[in-house]
Design goal:
Low-confidence stretches: 1-36, 350-368, 407-412
Distance between the termini: 41 Å
Helix content: 55-70%
Amino acid sequence: MNRLAVSGAAVLSVVVSTAALACLWDSDTLQMERFRFPGALEVITGKFVRHSPAYYEWRIADRQKKLVAAPDNPALVDDLAVAYAKLGRTDEGIPLLEQSLAARPDRYETLSNLGTLHFFAGRLEPSKDYIRRALAINPGAHFGREKYQLLLTEYVQQSQRAGLGVLSSEYRTPSEQGTIVIGFADFVLRRSDVGRGQSDELLSDARKAEIRAAARGVLGMLHFADHRSPILLEALGDLLLTGRLSEDAAQHAARAYLRAAQFADDPDAAARFRVMAKESLSVQESVYLSPLEESLNAEVAAADEWFAAIAANEQRWIEEGKDVDREFAAAYYQTLEQVMAGALAESRPAPSNSLYESYRSQADSRQLASLIFAYIAAPLIAFAATFAGVYWLRVRRSRTPPARPKSALGMTQRPPKP
């Protein structure tokens, strides 16, 4: 009896604790994450419209020729400097921008470009100075991207990157009992107007909005600057992972960390990024790092094949002597907003009564089933097993005849004959 009760209680404890910590994940989960963070998967994998290296080589020659005729045109200087940066020749672009800025010290575009080029060149102090000046002129440009670029620059300066190769080595393990706010997400909230707050206030609407705005800002940096930057990918992963287990985008975050590992120059840093990816999935049911990495590699391969068509067209236009800018704009021009809108459309569930009801029904049905099993079915099963065991023991005892008394010599005594 006691052993049976103890065993039942132990089983019940394991079942309830496991169900409480885990979240159900299936083929719909990635679509739900795309619904909450549209465009993130496309930017992480590189499946968005952008230029090829051949184009930037063409642009350098094209803008240099045009600058001969219009040497004071700052837009041509911007184009030339950005082309150098896209080819990894940042130090060739910065002097051009600084010379242009000397003639127009309050030009927002030049200040913003200088801030970005200095950031990717690792010169963080001048980067902050230029971004602050750009923000003072146009604080709302690029959906506020520069605000988060400035915050990220400050975060990088106080991070562990110099010693570990990653910005933060904090554990990245979501929990259904609380919330997870780590790394860059934590830094953003602490420096924002809404503040970090206490643990029970972390999911306020204002803080959710701030995290989403920061994610959009980092996505913009990846989209327009360098989608292969480990710094940007780690920061994006931190933002995607923020919140409760049922509200974050852990699979997207894991992909961002894995992509950071792929682009990291330091093998130790790459290993730490992989640990981040594994930790972000550690309490998810049926979602493991190896299968997710296989899915990511397939997604990246598909994105590379998709982008190869763009690169081939640009190469053909160059060989045919056409205006590549005009041909590209006519065929492909796509803003980040268009990327996000397309991702949102692809992630929408099949129509039912309404989009909201359809989405909530998919999310809530799995969570409801998990809660019903954890807090109703499991206790009832354990109670029924315990009750059945007690009943069986009592029935067995009632059917067992009493033992016959023994004599002093140890012999069983027979009852006296009448």
